[in-house]
Structures are given as C-alpha cells and as structure tokens.
Amino acid sequence: MRAKKTNKSVKPYEKGAFNIFNTIGMCIIMLVTIYPMWYALINSLNSGDALTKGYSFFLPEKFTLASWKLVLGDAEIINALWITGSRTIIVTIGSTLITAMFAYGFSRQYLYGRKFFAGLGFVSMYFSGGTIATFILVNWLKLYNTYWVYIIPALFGGFYNVIIYNANFKAIPESLFESAKIDGASEFKIFFSIVLPLSKPVLAALGVFTACGVWNDYGTTLFYTQSSSLQTLANYTLKLIKSSQAVEQLAATVMQSNQSVSALVNSSMGSGETTSKTVELAAMVLTTIPVVVAYPFVQKFFTKGVMVGSVKG
C-alpha cells in the first residue's frame, strides 16, 4: 500500500511568531551594524570641549563642523582621497573586464591547454610567492614607489573570480555563440555584445567586492611606497589614529611625573571646537562614506549576482 502523503500546513500563529523573531533579529543586526557608524559620525560633529567630558551616544552635545572643515581643508587628505578614488575606479573597471575576459576564454571547451591553466589557477588560490617575492618582483618591474603599483598588480581579480565568471558563462546557451559565429562575429564581438550584457548581475557583484577591497587596502601603500604623495585614504586614517594614540600615551605618562608639563601636553592635544579625537573620527567617517553611499545603487545587481553565481556554480 502506498503511504499517504501528509501536507502539513503552517499554522497562522507559527508563521506570525517566525515573522516576529525574524524582524527582531534583523533589527538587532541592523542596529549592531549601523550604530558604530552613527556613533563615529555624531562624535565627529561634537565639539572638542564637549568630547573631553565624555562621548555622545545619540546626538552631538555641542554641534560643530570644525573637525570636518579641518579634515576637508587638509591638502594631504584631499590628495589621499584622489589617489584612493582614482585607483578604485581604474582597478574595478580594469580588473572586472580582464578577469571576465580570461574567464570567457577559460569557459570555452576548445581552449588549448585548458587543464594546464586550470591547474595553475587552483595552485595560485592556495599558494603564493609571499611578501618578499612580490616585493622583489615589484621592484624589478620598476613599480616601487610609483602610482602604477596600485594599478598593474591588481588588474587580475584572482582565480576565485574566474570560477564564478566561468560558471555564469557556461550557463549561457551555446546556440547564441553558434549563431553569432555563423553571422561572422569574432570572439571579441561575442564577448562584448553577448557575454557581458548577459552577465551584468555577476559583473556588478564581483565589481562591488573588488571596489571595497581596493578602497580599504592599505598593505600596498605600506609595503610598496615611500612618498607621502602616494598614501591612500586608509593609510592617512591609520596615521591619524596612531598619532592620536601616541599623544594620549604621552599625556598619560607625563601626567604621572609632572603636572605643569602635563597641562601643556593636554593643551597641545586640542581644546575648543576640535581635538585630535574629533579629527580622527571625521577622517574615519569620510573613509567609509563612499562605500555606504554607492552600495544601495548596486544592491539589486549584487544580490542577484550572488544568487546566480551560487546556483550555477
């Protein structure tokens, strides 16, 4: 005898309870994610005198734009913003295009030496030359302490991205490629006219990952540059944080030994509308604003691209 199929319907109160807990959980996650940004923003808009009395948690105690004017008026941070922004745009576009082009060739079954390239790619995912070997290569290529050290080594997005692109390209019907070849289309024509337009979600998703990684990168500046004119926004912010910590440690040390010198150090830390801490917070917020602003515009492509890549992969 065939077993009877039992369709258990979800009871209304069970569905309601799930929605309630789901909503509460999402609100908690959203609060934990957004509040640190809000906390840094309101304290960067707080006056130095008010901040020395204690941090604000919801709204600035004494609103002022002095710290932001100081940060945005600094030629060094404007240059760092230009270096970071231009680098992010060039690398994101170049890396996305070059990696997708490589993945398209890799997705074609008639590619000569396909298994060999696959083996090299998988090895590169788990093993690398290391920092010293990379430094020697960068120096040998005359990229050290130049703007191009930010661009050329980052133009290939890695074999992990190739795998995601490859899974998406294989899902495109082969009949489209055959029809295009019958019409006399070249491989470049097929790639730019068929493959790229049909892969916008995946391109956008991996483009967001690439842009965020490049924007927040500070290791390249740390290892491969010396000139202050080549520092990125992340390195500038890190320098501000370290400077602020050094001043605070100096003040704490001097305070224990000499009160008159301690008063002088405390005054040098900043009083009135700005302090080293308010400037530091303003720089931190400035670093995160572009990513926060840009993400909502690509969110729909990002979500769809991740889903497509995971299902097809």
Secondary structure blueprint with pairings:
Blueprint: H1 12-44, H2 48-53, H3 66-72, H4 75-107, H5 114-126, H6 130-140, H7 159-170, H8 174-182, H9 187-195, H10 200-215, H11 219-224, H12 233-257, H13 259-268, H14 276-312
Brief summary of the model shown:
By secondary structure, the protein is mainly alpha-helical. The chain is 73% helix and 0% strand. The two termini are 40 Å apart.
The helical percent reads over 70%
Q: What is the name of the CATH superfamily? A: MetI-like
- H/E element order: HHHHHHHHHHHHHH
Structural class of the secondary elements? mainly alpha
Number of strands: 0
Biggest β-sheet strands, sense, barrel: none
**Gyration radius from CA atoms, angstroms:** 26 Å
Which range does the strand content fall in? under 5%
- Total domain modules: 1
Intertermini distance:
40 Å
Please name the defining characteristics of this protein.
313 residues; globular; mainly alpha; 73% helix; MetI-like fold; disordered C terminus
Question: What would you say this structure looks like, in words?
Answer:
With 313 residues, the chain is an all-alpha fold. It has a single domain, classed as MetI-like (MetI-like fold), CATH 1.10.3720. The chain is 73% helix and 0% strand. α1 packs antiparallel against α14, α4 runs antiparallel to α10 and α4 crosses α12. The longest helix has 37 residues.
